[in-house]
Amino acid sequence: MAHHIEADLPASLACLKNVDSLLRCPICFDYVNISMMTKCSHNFCSLCIRKFLSYKLQCPVCNTPMTEQDLRNNRILDELTVNFQVARQQLIKANFDSPPISPKTPASVAKCQTPREKGQKPTSSILSHFFQKKVKSPSGREAHQDIQSRELQTAQPGNSGNVQTGQLRTSVVIKEEPMDVEDSSTLTFGAVKHEDMASYSSRFHMTNPSPSKDVKPVIKVECPVCSVSVSQHFINKHLDSCLTRGEKKESLRSSLGKARRPMAKLVYNLLSMQELRRRLKECQLSVQGSRDQLVRRHQDFIHLFNAECDSLNPKSVEEIAKEVEANEKMRSQLQGKIKPVMVFSKNHSEEEIEAMHSNYRKQHSSDFSRLIAQVRGRLGSSRQRGDAPGGSERREAVQESHSSAEAAEPKNGVVVKVEAEEVGENTSAAGFELPSSPTLSDVSISSSISDIFGPESPRKFEDTEKSPVQKRRSSSRGDDGTPLTGKRRRKT
Amino acid sequence: FTQPQRMLPQKTQSSFGILNKNPVEGFSAGLIEDSDLYRWEVLIIGPPDTLYEGGVFKAHLTFPKDYPLRPPKMKFITDIWHPNVDKNGDVCISILHEPGEDKYGYEKPEERWLPIHTVETIMISVISMLADPNGDSPANVDAAKEWREDRHGAFKRKVARCVRKSQETAFE
């Protein structure tokens, strides 16, 4: 799957934050890809956990001893992740763009307007944000439904509305897939793999299908050699090309069943160079480089291969080999880029070390002043709050606003402020007893302290008990609750 | 979108994101160059109610290529007198020790590096290290000896000196 850095969830979608983080692998912080569950019920990307287990045989989250054999697929999590990503993208899009009001769906337009008018009332704007989304997505679904029904040439093109969404969901999974004719002519082995995903996602993003494209329903069958689904018309052609590849024959021989069997790990110390090369060739990997490089390359291949074994549509050996080599190339490029920051040897004197440190501090003084400014910025914002009369009352109001929902943007700012304040209090508490210091900055730090420290201190402990993370959780839970009731209200 | 590239930015950036939204008390961190995700600079304010209170400590984090499977290295650029920071400034705490080997023999596995750690969790450990030095695995033997034998005398004086110096050099 192609991964790029996703935009943050907009503040009005903060209620999805928990779902979002639950669907991420705790190792790579990306959406979980081929999820595997441990005995202790923790989920990781297959590749991430397999790589980690080659370091240490324990669960990275709870330290329970485990081995690779204990890993089990968690397919429902995979599906949830894919579906959530699609939904997330749609929601974000719907959140930023003004909704494309199509003349085809007048009903949805009418629906759209009521909540937005409600949104003008300041107290219910979060609700209205949710409404907008709720309303837009059904209209979007109708559109997809249209596309879908046209594509599949099913008998019920006129049906629309929420009742149909269930059917839509299932239609996504079925193997009858629309395919462009040009596409299928270039149906090489590699293309097949991506086709599934590509058509899957493109269907979701498609807003207006070009009528000129010749779309036909295609019945897919599974290739007995590589277990990839291929359109019926091209299966013979595919089989021919599939069987001419040695690698495929091997896979036919080694795993007649559906699942590809994971490769065993090798004890590289016992392998001769010749044997090692032979193994690499078997995996279609390059045999260039030192022994260590070869070993590393083979290890990487095994990790990727075994991770792919957990997939429903595993990548071919050729693709995996390509990926391994691309990774290796990138690693070596990175290695060239990384310069050692400061190299010390044991015979450096303390003066020399100090000189080098001081040099570094001077070179990077602007970076550090930026960081200092960041910490002070938090102090500054808390000072402003301290000056205002009834600061603690305001904070309560602030916390209420999580649930009672102010407009999206102020809410975000508020979260930062509340947390920044804690930082401010602590650092300022630190500064309060500072030995007098000659620098200007310290003067301003301690002056800010006297402003805040007094009125805020009774509340300090109460607040620091809750970690910021917990606080975010509880607040987003509040968000979860309100829109739901709102939705019910709308229906009645 | 190959693995190492994807892993590092995703992880460091998301941990950085968390960091911006939920700042841990008393530190901030950022990239040295936007293009190089493997090198970070951090600023730690000495935690309250400790000897290091009010100190402005600068440090450097270097991530290995196979992060997050292996831990980053942390180095204080500001002089700091602490049993677990050696005289070069290298930080020696169990959370930054690699998961595979157990060369010191007495660390519990849960205290060692795990790929689920982030810049934020490392900073929490470092701040608690400042609050509560670990005398069992000294990186600075002299400091550890002073800490054990004369915590409120010589050790305290030396720490106070480095705290003051850190404030003087904060904006040099």
TrEMBL record, chain A:
SMART domains: RING, SAP, ZnF_Rad18
Biased composition (Low complexity): 435-452
Pfam families recorded: SAP (PF02037), zf-C3HC4_2 (PF13923)
Catalytic reaction annotation: S-ubiquitinyl-[E2 ubiquitin-conjugating enzyme]-L-cysteine + [acceptor protein]-L-lysine = [E2 ubiquitin-conjugating enzyme]-L-cysteine + N(6)-ubiquitinyl-[acceptor protein]-L-lysine
Chain intervals for the UniProt region annotation (Disordered): 97-164, 377-415, 427-492
Cross-referenced InterPro entries: Rad18, Rad18_UBZ4, SAP_dom, Znf_RING, Znf_RING/FYVE/PHD, Znf_RING_CS
Record-level GO BP terms: DNA damage tolerance; DNA repair; protein monoubiquitination
GO cellular component annotations of the record: nucleus; Rad6-Rad18 complex
Enzyme Commission number, as recorded: 2.3.2.27
Keywords (A to Z) from UniProt: DNA damage, DNA repair, DNA-binding, Metal-binding, Nucleus, Transferase, Ubl conjugation pathway, Zinc, Zinc-finger
Pathway: Protein modification; protein ubiquitination
Main location per the UniProt record: nucleus
Domain UBZ4-type: 220-247
KW Transferase (keyword) present: yes
UniProt GO molecular function: single-stranded DNA binding; ubiquitin protein ligase activity; zinc ion binding
Localization of this protein: Nucleus
Family: Belongs to the RAD18 family.
PANTHER family assigned to the protein according to its UniProt record, in alphabetical order: E3 UBIQUITIN-PROTEIN LIGASE RAD18 (PTHR14134)
Protein's UniProt name: RING-type E3 ubiquitin transferase
Organism: Oryzias latipes
From TrEMBL, chain B:
Reaction(s) catalysed (UniProt annotation): S-ubiquitinyl-[E1 ubiquitin-activating enzyme]-L-cysteine + [E2 ubiquitin-conjugating enzyme]-L-cysteine = [E1 ubiquitin-activating enzyme]-L-cysteine + S-ubiquitinyl-[E2 ubiquitin-conjugating enzyme]-L-cysteine
PROSITE patterns in alphabetical order: UBC_1 (PS00183), UBC_2 (PS50127)
EC number(s) per entry: 2.3.2.23
Stored SMART domains: UBCc (SM00212)
Coiled coil (residue ranges): none
GO MF terms, alphabetically ordered: ATP binding; ubiquitin conjugating enzyme activity
CDD domains assigned to the protein according to its UniProt record, in alphabetical order: UBCc_UBE2G1 (cd23795)
Pfam families associated with the record: UQ_con
Keyword Thylakoid assigned: no
Active site: 92 (glycyl thioester intermediate)
Domain of life: Eukaryota
Gene Ontology terms describing biological process: proteasome-mediated ubiquitin-dependent protein catabolic process; protein polyubiquitination
Keyword entries, A-Z: ATP-binding, Nucleotide-binding, Transferase, Ubl conjugation pathway
Positions of the UBC core domain: 7-168
UniProt KW Iron-sulfur keyword: no
Family per similarity comment: Belongs to the ubiquitin-conjugating enzyme family.
UniProt function note: Accepts ubiquitin from the E1 complex and catalyzes its covalent attachment to other proteins. In vitro catalyzes 'Lys-48'-, as well as 'Lys-63'-linked polyubiquitination. May be involved in degradation of muscle-specific proteins. Mediates polyubiquitination of CYP3A4.
Protein name: Ubiquitin-conjugating enzyme E2 G1
Gene from which the chain derives: UBE2G1
